[in-house]
Automatic annotation (TrEMBL):
GO terms for molecular function: triose-phosphate isomerase activity. This is Triosephosphate isomerase. It is found in: Cytoplasm. PROSITE patterns: TIM_1, TIM_2. CDD domains: TIM (cd00311). It comes from Malaciobacter marinus. The gene is tpiA.
């Protein structure tokens, strides 16, 4: 059984998120789909949704705080209002676009770990590192585990090569398997792949050795496509 997660990034409104969740929920209920589905809407679209148990809502980000003076951020008092207990940490856009350091990421991880959140923790190398080969790629990825408790019980990992995110360039099966096998040897946690996963390649990718599911951006934002993605992976 695979895990299929959708990262909305800065897409969808409060209204369209509501429609999306209700559409997906109806489909999961009707077809008795058992796969674990996680959706990360924008912070402004979080809400208390009445969903089947295998559809979970998570936050794309939050600050390591209950509340306080952190302009533009949200903390657990805002998440608690909607019963959100799942968080995405270490996404490449937060690392590379928003400039989050490994130290800040580890602090966030530890804060949310202490509270028992399910953490989807992202790792992945930029193109210039990939071009230096597998050994350098793995070295770079292992640096992204500094300060992170990889034995944490509620941890799910997501390997998202930066060069494959939002580019339409999916990693080859060989790239994925090489990295996944190496990570799995060290860390025994569910490991998703992310980076230009589409309706037409999701089944093949999720069937690879040591791939436990997918974390999807672009291809998941259309609700019909997202259902097709779930449909294609429901028997894996
Ligand atoms: O960053 C991603 C999911 O977190 C992947 O994004 P794309 O599926 O758009 O490449």
């Amino acid at each position: 059984m695979v895990i299929i997660a959708s990262n909305f990034k800065t897409n969808h409104t409060r209204q369209s998120t509501k429609e999306f969740i209700s559409f997906i929920n109806d489909y999961l209920k009707k077809d008795s789909i058992k796969n674990e589905i996680i959706v990360f809407p924008t912070a402004t679209s979080l809400d208390r949704f009445n969903t089947v148990p295998n559809l979970t809502l998570g936050t794309q980000n939050a600050y390591a705080t209950i509340k306080g003076s952190f302009t533009g951020e949200i903390g657990t008092s805002q998440l608690d209002e909607f019963g959100i207990k799942t968080i995405l940490i270490g996404h490449s856009e937060r690392r590379h676009v928003l400039g989050e350091t490994q130290e800040q990421i580890a602090e966030k991880f530890n804060f949310y770990k202490e509270l028992g959140y399910k953490i989807i923790y992202c790792i992945g190398e930029p193109l210039e590192v990939k071009e230096q080969g597998l050994e350098k790629t793995l070295e770079y990825i292992y640096e992204q585990f500094v300060g992170i408790d990889t034995n944490y019980e509620n941890l799910i990992l997501a390997y998202e090569p930066v060069w494959a995110i939002g580019t339409g360039v999916t990693a080859t099966n060989e790239d994925i398997v090489n990295v996944h096998n190496a990570i799995k040897k060290k860390i025994s946690k569910p490991l998703l792949y992310g980076g230009s996963v589409k309706v037409n390649n999701v089944k093949e990718i999720c069937s690879l050795n040591n791939v436990d599911g997918a974390l999807i951006g672009t291809a998941s934002w259309n609700k019909e496509d997202f259902i097709e993605i779930i449909e294609k992976t429901k028997d894996i």
